[in-house]
Amino acid sequence: MMINGIEDEDKWLAEGIAAIQHNAFYMHRALDANNLREALKYSAQMLSELRTSKLSPHKYYELYMRAFDELRKLEMFFKDESRHGVSIVDLYELVQHAGNILPRMYLLCTVGSVYIKSKEAPAKDVLKDLVEMCRGVQHPIRGLFLRSYLAQISRDKLPDIGSEYEGDADSVVDAVEFVLQNFTEMNKLWVRLQHQGPGRVREKLEKERSELRDLVGKNLHVLGQIEGVDLGMYKDAVLPRVLEQIVNCSDDLAQYYLMDCIIQVFPDEYHLQTLETLLGACPQLQPTVDVKTVLSQLMERLSNYAASSTDVLPEFLQVEAFAKLSSAIGRVIEAQVNMPIVGAITLYVSLLTFTLRVHPDRLDYVDQVLGACVKKLSGKPKLEDQRAKKQVVALLSAPLEKYNDAVMALTLSNYPRVMDHLDNETNKVMAMVIIESIMKNYTCISTADQVEVLFELIKGLIKDLDGTAVDELDEEDFNEEQNSVARLIHMLYNDDPEELLKIICTVKKSIMNGGPRRLPFTVPPLIFSALRLIRQLQGQDGDVAGEEVPATPKKIFQILNEMIESLSTIPSPELALRLYLQCAEAANDCGLEPVAYEFFTQAFVLYEEEIADSKAQVTAIHLITGTLQRLNVFGVENRDTLTHKATGYSAKLLKKPDQCRAVYACSHLFWVDDQDGIKDGERVLLCLKRALRIANAAQQMANVTRGNSGPVTLFVEILNKYLYFFEKGNPQITSAAIQGLIELITTEMQSESTAPNAASDAFFASTLRYIQFQKQKGGAMGEKYDSVKV
């Protein structure tokens, strides 16, 4: 019985080592004197110390190693018959007279080793004799170490093919039988070891028992190294016997370790050809055995074997490896009713990895694995276990990483069904993985059906799932997610306009329920995709009969108007206004005046009703002016209406400097170089004069409020506009007007009420240098500037 006290154990170990050293000393003296009788006497006394039951396996191992070292010296003495004068046959009989069985067996094994080497008897007979007689020691620890010693001294003396101890034709069978018998007995002893000692030290004992596992596993290593064990023998004799012992021992530690040993020790080719037998044992293992790791390691080894050469792939098809592995995993999950869900999913991840490496062309296999996972998850609530969620993400990511093509994942019917079992947060993580795969590999999603499946997969990003309020989301993460969706929309394309329009309609249907925080991210890219399509279709018009929406610019503009309206109601008026102007420009390119006018009307309505911030108003009016200046589709009446509106709003801005700049910008609406008919010099001059009046009013207001009139920057900016139109040939802009403006600015700058400003001074000086440069350049332009004095 083992005692819990560590100090007592240390004391007993020290006493045992001292006794071994004491008897070893006298044994060495006897060996030196070639005294066989004394040598056997003291060696038997030395080995009697191994009969102790007081030591734990760990401490017993230390004691065993001391004795083992001494036995090597004794063996050297037994080899030299000239020193002890007794034949090896007689010596083999002589040591069997030792009083106690344990010393007798150690001595018998030591002499047996010499006996085999002498070749005076067939190796198989001596080995059979030894392995049978070791049955006499049934104490778990003592028996385990004795048989370990037998395995150690016999491993290089087995009657294997090509060995010097090879006997008749069946000698390999005898070698295998010897190792299997020793393995079986050692495993029984190792399993029984768990029942030694009181329950309170059971955990410590299990740990030490685990440390002894290599003593048992060594036998399987020896089996794996026997040259004569070919596939036929392994299949018929070795594997069934080993598996029978593993299943029958009913010990989870032994079963897990020995299954792992089989997988690691024997060749991959053998595993492939005996897959059914090996997998058949898995459901019979104890429920507490970590079968998922065993099977995962097996599949990894087989995957590596398949990757080693294309020549072996037909073997996998021949033995139907996938079907057998899939069936075995199903049976294991069914047999182990208490297996946590993460264990089952891990098995499917391993099977999928195996499938993708061995049968990458079989998408039906991939879908089968996903389907089996769906079956396991069905009827259960959404996953909450973090490890299980991580494994599902790994399962779904594997096809993306293998094929580098998200379109292939879209063809797997069970892919979205697996995703449905993820909680909202993990669903979004997986959606991001899918988008990143598409972006990384520049995958083009080119059909409306694919887009529909894709947006079903990433629905966690494009709308609020049940139970998740958008307000709860981290803003930075949310923005990153929505920017990813926006980038994804740009990857949806088809050269066929009809199909591209279907794609746009499919995306619109998916994203319009995204809510006020998502739409500003997702609507603009879709609108620009639609505008790209419109430019492809420029020149086409008219309605096409039929139920489906035809791909004509008019119809697409209707869809665009609907989408932008949704933005203006969120509200996100500034973004909506920009998009209306983009659409107006596209309608202009298509020659659709009513459509362009309608978009401008919507932009003005937004400006009037929704944009209240003064800075936003300034930006908006400049955008409106700039866009209107570029458009040439409008007739005189429509253009006058829009131009009048733009100039009117410009003059109503809150701050005088903003008013001034917006009004002089409007002058460009009446003078467009590349457009016949729009060169109204008088209205240009009116705009500039109005801007001058506003600039003058701004100076006066500044003088009243601050005591000085501020910089002359606005006057210099207006002067530059005068110069622009003067050079463009506007007859209303004369050199006298320019001269007058220069003198006005000079007077203002010299006035005591004007605050000095380096930037405006430099701006004016640069403008004067430009006039001087034009005068010196000569030619027609030089002549125009001649009358301007600077």
UniProtKB/TrEMBL annotation:
GO terms for biological process: intracellular protein transport; retrograde transport, endosome to Golgi. The keyword Transport applies. InterPro entries: ARM-type_fold, Vps35, Vps35_C. Belongs to the VPS35 family. Plays a role in vesicular protein sorting. This is Vacuolar protein sorting-associated protein 35. It comes from Lithocarpus litseifolius. It holds the Pfam family Vps35. One of its GO terms (cellular component) is Golgi apparatus. It is a peripheral membrane protein. Keywords: Cytoplasm, Endosome, Golgi apparatus, Membrane, Protein transport, Transport. PANTHER family: VACUOLAR PROTEIN SORTING-ASSOCIATED PROTEIN 35B, VACUOLAR SORTING PROTEIN 35. The keyword Ribosomal protein does not apply. It is found in: Cytoplasm; Endosome membrane; Golgi apparatus, trans-Golgi network membrane; Prevacuolar compartment membrane. Its main location: cytoplasm. It comes from the Eukaryota.
